[in-house]
Each structure stands twice: as C-alpha cells, then as structure tokens.
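My main concern about presentation is that the manuscript never shows what a single data entry looks like. In essence, backbone conformation is discretised, so a fold becomes a row of integers matching the chain in length. An entry of this sort, consisting of the sequence and the corresponding backbone structure tokens, reads as follows:
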Amino acid sequence: MKYILALLFLPFTMFAQQGYWQQQVDYIIEVELNDEDHVLEGFITMQYKNNSPNTLNHIYIHLWPNAYRNHESALADQLLENSDPSFRFSKLSQRGFIDKLSFKLNAEACVWKYDSNSIEIAKLELNEPLA
C-alpha cells in the first residue's frame, strides 16, 4: 500500500514543481530624513530580473505609504471594519503618503499612472519589453 501511495503522489509533486518561477528584484535605497518637516526624500534603484516565461510590457510597484493618504484606501476600510476609527478621524499631519514620483528605465523616463483601483499601486509602462 505504501508503494502505491508513493506512486500516486509522485506525478502530482513533479507536476506542481513544473513552471514555478519567481521574479527577482534587488534594491538600493538612499533616503534622507528631514525631521523638522517630517519628510523623507530619496531614491530607490531597482534591478528587476524577469524570471517568468512571459515578456513584460509593464510592471506594478506597490506604494505602501499611500495606504495612509486618505480614507478611500483598503487600509482605511479594513481599520473601520475592525472597529478601529483612529485612522478615520486622524489629521492629515498624522498620515503619510508618497508624492513627487518619477520612474526611469536605464536613465530614460517611464510613463506611469496609479492603478485605477488603488493609489497604493503604480503601473509602469516599460520603454522596451523585458524578456
């Protein structure tokens, strides 16, 4: 019985491993804190390696701090659903967000826009497809 069971699971296990891939992104983050104005300014350099079998024409970047930008974010909805009104009634000065964004691919500006459903996600149109 053990041999039959092993044979039945072996093909499933092999099939589950085929086609697995994960993108690779390496970051260099250079940031300065202006503690008087409570502002971070900086640059992030990303090296993105496409390990998928698909050629990419765009990539998505999560802008996590924008979850705190206004009351329309998924975070605001979740906090309210969890009976935590602190964010809903917070002052603008108590929240954070990312602005003044620009993206470049190999020193050339990229066209980007916020995702139509969330200001927490930026969609970057790549200047050339990434194989």
Notes: Residues 2-17 form the longest helix (16 residues). Helices lie at 2-17, 74-81. The mean pLDDT is 82. The two ends are 47 Å apart (CA to CA).
